Inverse folding.
């Protein structure tokens, strides 16, 4: 698994203590707002890690120039691991208005500047910060992210950094920048996040790939692997520069990840990548180490240079898919094996065969309810499959132009699906809505088969006909290769709109063999996806109306019960249509199962319990109905309500409180 976890310096939840000066500060008025293109900030930080007493502290100056058309009066500061923080602006007190958590779980402080930053002026923040924790004492190795207070606009941006780090002499430091030995500062421009690494008794290898400084930090046990990784990294950076025209950063630091056997690695921060199990090199062959090095460096283009449009996920499916494309290009050029990329597609195919919903474009709430390995099946497996399919449809030359444009136009900017689709359509000169709708917004899968083939003598040559049948529910042109007895080969595409395509070939020699997807780049299922009883039942329930479905609701209830259906939404709808048909006993069980499949304390849990109360009232079981209403109120979230327009019902706190006073009656 590609472990795209993001190491934070201390996993222990630390509390925030915010200090600010007192005095007669002139407070600027105006609400917090986010510029469409936020100003690039410059951070100058001095940071000390004391591994004897377990304390880290720092001082930083943040500078930003307001290049917008309106004054900036308030800004947000993000610092997820702070224990104390003092903020001033040009020596004046800063008013901290409070903090709040965003949907991503990130907590940020909103501060009011003592003087508004006018258009064209420079804003300056001086921040002292520190925290203490026993986890720092005599630490062995640790990647460090989220360690400094930063300006936060609700999404990632590129900023410039100068960072000086002090630690005990036995510790080796890695950083997201190049060390200026004259000043002692690590410098980096245009980076998403500045990361650090601290390792006790570690060593390092250093080399250059053009103007890129590469370091590989390693423990004594990992020296042999570090040598291979380092030589590969130099080759990868040189190849990427040749392939894409540039390398996005001035440095690259490679650190060891987990020290137990596991597959993969992860991008720690800009210009820092971790590779797992470097101390156990013998567990993998050379091709693995060369591929994983190229794979992780590829993320420096996609996720670090180009930014994700998802504020909660710096490496969303699109960034991962485009990053995997980069290392696939390296793999094809240097030939360290293609099994890894086939493995991504196979992970996705296994998920399809298991009946998982692999729709990419889902909400954070839908994502939180997923119980399968979404990271491997969708974010890595399907994402790389989508990009491979798009590359196949557009052709290498067109897709190469698409990739180059994205790298150029979205340097330090957020690239989302809509922007990506627009560039693809402009370069291809065709509408691609059909492609993105199926691959990104649906659970459809790709499956075609060769149903017949023939070859007949015609004059001095041969005419071959190959019939290709679509057996999956996703439609796209699929490459078909014909191989002939004289060693020649021809490749054509099936017709997207046809369920059965007849592809003809003219040749001098007789037909020997035909293959679908001859290069093995598509996630083609060799047979239709098996549909489980549960999946069929869910589909039937979705297609059923909400009112006046009569005994069909009872039939679906029996089918769902026998099939051990576990889908919360399906059980809730069953409860509603059973209620509509006056099947209260069965409806009660459906609502109970809906509640059982919901997360305790969630909105789903609340509304299912209220409907249990409704049906219990109709069944004359008032005492139990009262318990349901009272319990439901304990899970009621502020501002949440549900409308059932077909019955004129609005389930709110007031509704439930009224049901406690007066039983539910059907009108």
């Amino acid at each position: 698994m590609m472990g795209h976890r993001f190491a934070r310096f201390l996993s222990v939840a630390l509390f925030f203590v915010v200090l600010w000066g007192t005095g007669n500060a002139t407070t600027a008025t105006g609400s917090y707002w986010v510029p469409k293109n936020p100003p690039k900030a410059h951070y100058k930080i001095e940071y000390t890690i004391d591994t004897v007493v377990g304390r880290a502290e720092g001082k930083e100056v943040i500078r930003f120039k307001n290049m917008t058309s309106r004054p900036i009066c308030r800004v947000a500061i993000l610092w997820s691991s702070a224990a104390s923080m003092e903020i001033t602006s040009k020596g004046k007190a800063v008013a901290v208005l409070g903090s709040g958590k965003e949907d991503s779980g990130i907590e940020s402080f909103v501060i009011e500047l003592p003087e508004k930053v006018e258009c064209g002026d420079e804003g300056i923040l001086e921040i002292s910060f520190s925290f203490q924790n026993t986890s720092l004492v005599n630490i062995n190795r640790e990647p460090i992210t989220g360690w400094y207070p930063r300006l936060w606009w609700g999404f990632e941006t590129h900023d410039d950094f100068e960072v000086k780090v002090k630690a005990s002499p036995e510790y080796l430091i890695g950083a997201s920048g190049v060390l200026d030995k004259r000043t002692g500062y690590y410098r980096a421009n245009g980076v998403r996040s500045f990361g650090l690494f601290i390792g006790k008794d570690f060593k390092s290898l250093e080399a250059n790939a053009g103007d890129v400084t590469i370091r590989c930090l390693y423990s004594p046990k990992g020296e042999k692997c570090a040598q291979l990784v380092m030589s590969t990294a130099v080759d990868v950076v040189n190849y990427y520069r040749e392939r894409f025209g540039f390398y996005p950063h001035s440095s690259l630091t490679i650190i060891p990840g987990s020290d137990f056997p596991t597959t993969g690695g992860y991008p720690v921060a800009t210009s820092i990548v971790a590779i797992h199990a470097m101390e156990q090199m013998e567990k993998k062959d050379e091709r693995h180490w060369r591929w994983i090095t190229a794979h992780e460096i590829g993320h420096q283009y996609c996720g670090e240079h180009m930014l994700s449009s998802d504020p909660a996920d710096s490496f969303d499916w699109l960034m991962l898919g485009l990053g995997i494309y980069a290392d696939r290009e390296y793999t094809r050029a240097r030939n360290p094996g293609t099994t890894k990329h086939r493995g991504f597609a196979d992970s996705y195919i296994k998920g399809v065969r298991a009946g998982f919903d692999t729709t990419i474009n889902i909400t954070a709430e839908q994502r939180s309810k997923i119980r399968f390995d979404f990271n491997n099946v969708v974010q890595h497996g399907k994402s790389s499959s989508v990009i491979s399919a798009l590359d196949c449809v557009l052709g290498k030359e067109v897709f190469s132009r698409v990739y180059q444009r994205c790298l150029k136009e979205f340097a330090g900017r957020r690239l989302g699906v809509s922007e990506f689709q627009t560039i693809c359509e402009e370069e291809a000169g065709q509408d691609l809505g059909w492609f993105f709708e199926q691959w990104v917004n649906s659970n459809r899968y790709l499956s075609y088969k060769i149903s017949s083939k023939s070859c007949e003598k015609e004059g001095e040559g041969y005419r071959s006909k190959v019939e290709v049948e679509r057996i999956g529910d996703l439609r796209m042109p699929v490459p078909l290769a014909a191989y002939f007895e004289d060693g020649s080969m021809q490749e054509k595409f099936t017709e997207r709109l046809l369920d059965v395509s007849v592809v003809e070939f003219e040749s001098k020699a007789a037909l020997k063999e035909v293959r679908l997807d001859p290069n093995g780049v598509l996630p083609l299922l060799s047979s239709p996806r098996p549909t489980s009883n549960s999946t069929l039942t869910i589909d039937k329930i979705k297609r059923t109306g909400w009112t006046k479905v009569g005994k069909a609701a009872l039939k679906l209830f029996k089918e769902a019960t026998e099939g051990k259906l576990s889908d919360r939404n399906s059980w809730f709808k069953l409860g509603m249509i059973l209620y509509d048909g006056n099947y209260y006993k069965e409806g009660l069980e459906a609502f109970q199962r809906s509640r059982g499949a919901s997360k305790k304390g969630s909105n789903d849990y609340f509304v299912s319990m209220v409907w249990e109360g409704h049906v219990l009232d109709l069944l004359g079981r008032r005492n139990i109905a009262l318990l349901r209403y009272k319990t439901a109120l304990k899970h009621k979230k502020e501002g949440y309500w549900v409308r059932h327009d077909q019955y004129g019902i609005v389930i709110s706190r007031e509704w439930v409180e009224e049901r406690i006073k007066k039983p539910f009656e059907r009108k």
